[in-house]
Amino acid sequence: MINKKRMGLGRGLGALLPEKQMEEEDAQSVETYEISVDGIETNPYQPRTNFDSEALNELKESIQVQGIIQPITVRRIGNVYQLISGERRLQASKLAGLSKIPAYIREATDQQMLEMGLIENIQRENLNPMEVALAYQRLLKECNIKQDELGSRVGKDRTTVNNYLRLLNLPEIIQTGLAEKKLSMGHARALLGIENEEVLLNTYREIIQKEYSVRKVEDLVREINAGAKPKKSTESSTSKSPKIVLEELQVRLSALFSKKVAVVADAKSKGEIKIPFGSKEELEEIIGKLKK
């Protein structure tokens, strides 16, 4: 038999409950129950895929000293309980050797489970940027929350929410790098300013290889966008950055004139082509090739 006691509802989860349920619970304190940790199933709608083992161990040590400060939240399904929120607290409690854990018992549909689990994790957990972006996307698509409402539901301003959602437009390899903390949210936001995918991927690899700071990446992206923008109608021009085009032009001209030709240009693609010659005959030969 489970033990129960009355306890005030935490503000974070209280904000997520339906208005009718909140009105009912305003009139009285909320009961918490001591539930066996072995009788709790994990939340199938848990948005978090990775848990920091060091942080989990710190929470375990805190629980061993202070106990569970904030109860977990579950719903009853038959003879078992299914976790709504508090995955880290449940895992840390098991590591701490607890046999029972305090819990709120809620009635919740699958959609409410998803919404409460997503929002609580976004607000309380240190999710990586891609986990946050995917959680926002699920709230929009699976919980039918309008994008204009999403910011207020998760406690973030609209610009912040949009910045996370834009990460989903990045190539998969960059999304993976962001999830694995190979680059930061600041790096990713700067990379979103590059439209050409090949240039984007090359820039990403350069960032990883040379360990660029966010400021360096922002400067690099500005340089790329300040250069000659390729015409969309030409396939060869849309697939190469300005720097690559200049290098290839230099190689082609050097081969044409059998000399080391220098092509120099600034950020606005203004510059000069230098073709060396050692005699009047070589100059006339260069002029002849230019006329062809």
UniProtKB/TrEMBL annotation:
Domain ParB-like N-terminal: 33-122
Identification of the protein by name: ParB/RepB/Spo0J family partition protein
GO cellular component, as recorded: chromosome
Organism: Lacihabitans soyangensis
This protein's record includes keyword RNA-binding: no
Keyword DNA-binding: yes
Keywords attached to this entry: Chromosome partition, DNA-binding
Gene Ontology MF: a single term: DNA binding
One of the GO BP terms on file: positive regulation of sporulation resulting in formation of a cellular spore
Pfam families registered for this protein in UniProt: HTH_ParB, ParB_C, ParB_N
Family statement: Belongs to the ParB family.
